[in-house]
Design a protein that fits this description.
rod-shaped, mainly alpha, 133 residues, 2 helices
């Protein structure tokens, strides 16, 4: 069993001196543990960023091959009066069609035979097409 001389007999507090020396010796080790913790936090942050970037990349890959990029959509406020379609060469924009009157079916009756020259007509007035965009 080791014998200790406490600070009371010698006038020195040996336990305090040893404890303070050990604290001084532990400073580099404590700094190393602090750096390790900082590196672990950075690693978690990079992992989170990489996961979000991978998710964004996957989403963009699905959009890259999507057919929606090549389609032009056409809408009408009243499809009973006006329908339209667009192909991939159509220029995007907004077009307004104002309908002032609806045409009725053309008919011609005759007791005699109808020739091709009798089926001529004139332009329809009252329809305007404007373009904005």
């Amino acid at each position: 069993m080791p014998m200790r001389i406490s600070g009371m007999s010698s006038g020195l507090d040996i336990d305090k001196i040893v404890s303070d020396l050990m604290k001084a010796e532990r400073i580099p080790l404590d700094k190393m543990f602090q750096k390790k913790q900082i590196y672990l936090w950075k690693e978690d942050a990079y992992r989170s960023i990489n996961a979000k970037l991978a998710s964004l990349r996957d989403y963009l890959n699905t959009m890259k091959y999507s057919a929606d990029w090549t389609k032009n959509k056409v809408t009408s406020s009243d499809t009973t009066k006006l329908t339209a379609s667009a192909d991939s060469t159509a220029t995007p924009g907004t077009h307004t069609v104002t309908i002032t009157a609806l045409a009725s079916g053309a008919s011609k009756t005759s007791s005699a035979g109808i020739s091709a020259q009798q089926l001529t007509g004139s332009a329809i007035s009252g329809a305007t097409i404007t373009s904005s965009g």
